[in-house]
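Lecture 7, part 2: worked example. A protein chain together with iron/sulfur cluster.
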Amino acid sequence: MIQTDAPETIPISYLNALEYCPRRFHYEFVQGDMVVNDFVRLYLYSETLRLSGFTDVIESQDGIFIPVEYKHGKQGRWFNDHIQLCAQALCLEERQPGKPPIPYGYIFYFGSRKRVQVHFTPELRAKVLAAIDFAFQIAALAAPPPPLEGKIAVRCRDCSLAPICLPDEVRLLMGGKEDSLANTLPD
Ligand code: SF4
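Predicted complex, written out as C-alpha cells:
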C-alpha cells in the first residue's frame, strides 16, 4: 500500500475509532470526515507515547487523578471506549512522575445513565500500546484500508461512516479479497 508521512502524534479520541475499525480511523483522522464533538475538554499530552487529546473531566480521589469520559449512548459491546479512557490515564501518569499508576477511570453513558468503572489492567494497558502502534501504521497509509470482514463486519451496521465508506459495495468490487492489515485489530 502507498504510505504517507507518519503524523507527529495520534489524538487519543481516534484510538476509539481505530479499535472500532481501521478504515473508519483512516476516514476520520487522515481524511478528516469527523463527527463533531461538543464537549469542552481538558488537554492531555504524552511525549513518550506520541499522543495528544482531551478528557472530559479529571477527578481527584485520594490524591490520584482519575479520568472521566461522558458518552452519548449506552455501553457498547466493543472495547473502544476503554482503550480511549486508558490512553488518557497513561497521559496523566506521564504528567505525575513518581506517583502510583492510576488504577481505574469512569465512563458515564447518558443513554443508560450508568457510570461504569474501568480498571486499567496490564492487559488493557498492553492493548492501548498496541493500538497506538497500529494507529501510526494506518495513519501512514495514503488510502483507507479495505472494509471490515468476517464477524467484526457487523460493526458496519452501526457505523455513521457507512454512507461514505460503502462497505458492501467495496467488498463486492473486491470480490472477497481481504487485506491483512485492515482486519488485524490488536487483541
Ligand atoms: S462502514 Fe464498516 S468498514 Fe466502513 S468505516 Fe464503518 S465500520 Fe469500518
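The radius of gyration is 17 Å. Confidence is low (pLDDT under 50) at residues 34-40. Keep this in mind for problem set question 3.
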